[in-house]
Amino acid sequence: MKIGIFSDTHANLEALTAVLLALEHAGADELVCLGDTVGYGADPDECCDLIRASARYTILGNHDAAVAGRMDYGHYYAAARQALDLHASMVSQENLRWLAGLPYEVRDGHTAFCHGSPIDSQKFEYIFALVQAARCVPQWPRLQQVSFIGHSHLCKAFALSDDDVIEVESDSFELHGDLKYIISVGSVGQPRDYDNRAACTIYDTVARRVEFLRVEYDVATAAEKIFARGLARRFGERLFSGV
Predict the structure, then answer these.
(1) Domain limits at 136?
(2) What is this structure's pTM?
């Protein structure tokens, strides 16, 4: 089975539409969304509708939790709070109820899906570098064989033994049975690795192979819609550079 995994759409409908089409062309049998459907972008309700209709599992992200009233976001910077306030008014009541009911984590066989660190999924902690992944090593027995995460907006993979961790420096790789993996699948709608293409991941459960995919989309339209909504201009400008 091929699982298409994506995260951090952030209300970018143009990027989401392109990613879903790319995952279909890649032969994905089912889809999993790792959260942050809302926040930053211009089309939160439309993205909720599309993900609800497409994904087998959808995980709660921190922006989803904020819009659904499940967390206090008063400490977020002003422009992010403005976007979250606006999105809470734009999302339908049905989609707000959907966001409010999303799980922090789903475990399916030897695989875990969550938004931030798999050690405590309710804290939304980042894993974007070796130092953060190393903090998971003492919890190695608790980890699933492979944990897919979002939140960092980066495509990163870390292989853990019970006493060490290394970063996997490849866009396509096989899983080894004596290791456990934490794999960050990148961002659909707000990539931050200086590549403005949308990011997603394919996991072939039979071949035990993971592949990061990058997908071109209509960045200009997505940015112009952000400007038209009156959101912070940097939320649209950063789409062009991928930071």
Answers:
(1) 2-241
(2) 0.97
